């Protein structure tokens, strides 16, 4: 549980497993390098059953699994012995702060009593604050960045793929005449993600698709998936109200030179966004403990929700593959019927007039099947290019929020409680020194400086803790807007089915009408 108000948050619990334990059921297998493998994503441990269906043979699950593995293992987020895991976030409540610690801004300490705040969660001020954040984010906005794969691969020994990245609208804080097309490679996208994680660790930074899965880095289907994943990544970044304003994001999208060379020469800022910031006391007055409870509940259920949506997306992909097979089989059926009609004349030489009439209608059936195959092909393409992308984008959004929660557990710690205790002890020593004439002045001054330094550190850490709290609330508020992605994707799904179902029905009605004249007897 991500309890921001708990004094024992950082005690080790079952959720903070080491990589070996957390990924015990996510072992690489030879099937990982093929597109026929079991779901072994971090939340879909084994081949999962869904009613009478077993969710196996899914390259999407491999993509999600590798993405999450990169997120947690390669970044070593669960590195044993991380000091922050044993620290508290908010320190002791005000009742435990020594009143003699002058100069400490205790107004930023966690408030034990909420009597001075609004009793109801959705107070008018808090609601206005949230509404102002909601208006900055529209997850249903159209993509404004296009990523296309350049066919020619570069490199002498190790070939790599380049991508043409084009933004379709004028970007914030850029000249309208800025270059709208740049060439980037996967490592450039990776660099952008890493600097965003350094600067904005408590923002919803989307994950990148895996660089490769087994030996699939040269597989055209895998490369197509990776290109789509990169496109989703950069569009989620540019939709984010804070990330889209970042200078390095704009550099990534506008600087026409090789980004690797630019990084070696340029001096760019990667300091955390909270540097030199002070928490607005108006926000502190808005805070309500129930907000922490909501986060904790979301954190407890996010894996379940992610698992369910992955299953949904897998089934959508499976439906797409079935449509491809249906389309091919309809064309095949049309050809087989044509062959039958060509050969049937030899079986009915005495009834040539009738059999020719029948065969002409059979030709109509063949054309109808080809028309249905074209309809199935269009539907499959629409699923692949639009619907499936929307399902996967929502996966990316959920994983981005999960990343915020997980990074909070690792990176938001402080040692306020330890510093408070040390200040109290040193204050007692200082008082005893004042009554002892034998104590040297240098020792007294040194202890007083230590107390003052610890007080400043406590104030700084309290300030940072509140800034983190505000940042995560902003992210959680704008995340609420993504609930409409669920509505949108299912509306689009139903609309698509109605469209192609109507086309299919009309086609069958036409062929049925034509077949009414097909001979049933000699009369």
How is this structure best described in words?
By secondary structure, the protein is mainly alpha-helical. The protein has a domain at 145-273: 2-Layer Sandwich (PX Domain). The protein has 13 helices and five strands. The strands form two sheets. It has a three-stranded antiparallel β-sheet. Strands 1-2 form a two-stranded antiparallel sheet. The N and C termini lie far apart (81 Å). One of its GO terms (cellular component) is endosome.
Query: Strand order within the widest sheet?
Result: 3-4-5
Second-tier CATH architecture of the domain at 145-273: 2-Layer Sandwich
Say how many strands there are: 5
Q: What's the story with the biggest beta sheet?
A: 3 strands, antiparallel
| Percent of sequence in beta strands | under 5%
For the residues shown, what is the average pLDDT?
Answer: 79
What do we call the CATH homologous superfamily of the domain at 145-273? Phox-like domain
The CATH topology of the domain at 145-273 corresponds to PX Domain
Q: CATH class of the domain at 145-273, anyone? A: Alpha Beta
What overall geometry do the principal axes of the alpha carbons give?
Answer: elongated
Segments where pLDDT lies below 50 for 5+ residues?
6-58, 77-107, 110-118
Strand/helix succession: HEEHHEEEHHHHHHHHHH
The amount of helix comes to 55-70%
Number of helices: 13
Query: What structural category do the secondary elements indicate?
Result: mainly alpha
What is the radius of gyration computed over CA atoms, rounded to a whole number of angstroms? 31 Å
| Distance between the amino and carboxyl termini | 81 Å
Biased composition (Polar residues): 17-37
Family: Belongs to the sorting nexin family.
GO cellular component, one term: nucleus
Pfam families: PX, Snx8_BAR_dom
């Amino acid at each position: 549980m991500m309890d921001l108000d708990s004094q024992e948050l950082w005690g080790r619990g079952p959720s903070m497993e080491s990589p070996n334990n957390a990924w015990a059921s996510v072992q690489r297998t030879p099937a990982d390098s093929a597109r026929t493998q079991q779901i072994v994503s971090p939340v879909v441990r084994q081949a999962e059953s869904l009613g009478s269906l077993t969710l196996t043979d899914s390259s999407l699950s491999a993509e999600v699994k590798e993405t999450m593995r990169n997120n947690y293992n390669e970044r070593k987020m669960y590195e044993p012995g991380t000091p922050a895991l044993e620290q508290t976030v908010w320190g002791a409540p005000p009742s435990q702060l020594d009143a003699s610690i002058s100069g400490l801004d205790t107004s930023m300490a966690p408030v034990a009593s909420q009597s001075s705040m609004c009793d109801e969660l959705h107070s008018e001020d808090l609601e206005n604050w949230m509404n102002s954040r909601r208006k900055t984010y529209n997850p249903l906005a159209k993509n404004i960045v296009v990523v296309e794969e350049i066919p020619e691969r570069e490199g002498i020994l190790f070939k790599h793929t380049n991508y043409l990245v084009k933004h379709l609208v004028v970007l914030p804080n850029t000249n309208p005449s800025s270059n709208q097309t740049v060439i980037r490679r996967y490592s450039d996208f990776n660099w952008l993600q890493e600097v965003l994680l350094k600067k904005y660790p408590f923002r919803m930074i989307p994950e990148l698709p895996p660089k490769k899965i087994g030996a699939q880095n040269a597989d055209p289907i895998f490369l197509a998936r990776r290109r789509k994943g990169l496109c989703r990544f950069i569009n989620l970044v540019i939709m984010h109200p804070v990330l889209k304003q970042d200078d390095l994001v704009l550099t990534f999208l506008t600087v026409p030179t090789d980004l690797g060379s630019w990084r070696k020469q340029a001096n760019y800022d990667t300091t955390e966004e909270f540097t030199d910031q002070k928490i607005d006391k108006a926000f502190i007055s808005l805070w309500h403990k129930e907000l922490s409870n909501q986060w904790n509940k979301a954190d407890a259920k996010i894996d379940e929700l992610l698992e369910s949506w992955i299953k949904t997306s897998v089934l959508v992909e499976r439906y797409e593959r079935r449509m491809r097979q249906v389309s091919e089989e309809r064309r095949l059926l049309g050809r087989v019927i044509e062959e039958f009609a060509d050969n049937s004349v030899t079986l009915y030489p005495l009834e040539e007039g009738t059999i020719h009439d029948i065969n002409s209608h059979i030709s109509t059936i063949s054309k109808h099947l080809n028309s249905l195959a074209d309809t199935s092909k269009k539907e499959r393409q629409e699923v692949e290019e639009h619907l499936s992308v929307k399902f996967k984008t929502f996966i990316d959004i959920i994983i981005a929020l999960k990343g915020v929660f997980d990074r909070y557990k690792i990176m938001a710690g402080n040692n306020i409680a330890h510093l408070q205790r040390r200040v109290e002890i040193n204050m007692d020593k200082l008082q005893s020194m004042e009554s002892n004439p034998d104590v040297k002045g240098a020792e007294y001054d040194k202890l007083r400086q230590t107390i003052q330094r610890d007080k400043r550190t406590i104030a700084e850490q309290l300030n940072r803790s509140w800034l983190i709290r505000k940042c995560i609330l902003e992210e959680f508020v704008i995340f609420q807007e993504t609930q409409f992605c669920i509505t949108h994707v299912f509306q689009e799904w139903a609309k698509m089915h109605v469209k192609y179902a109507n086309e299919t029905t009309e086609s069958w009605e036409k062929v049925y009408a034509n077949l009414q004249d097909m001979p049933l007897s000699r009369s």
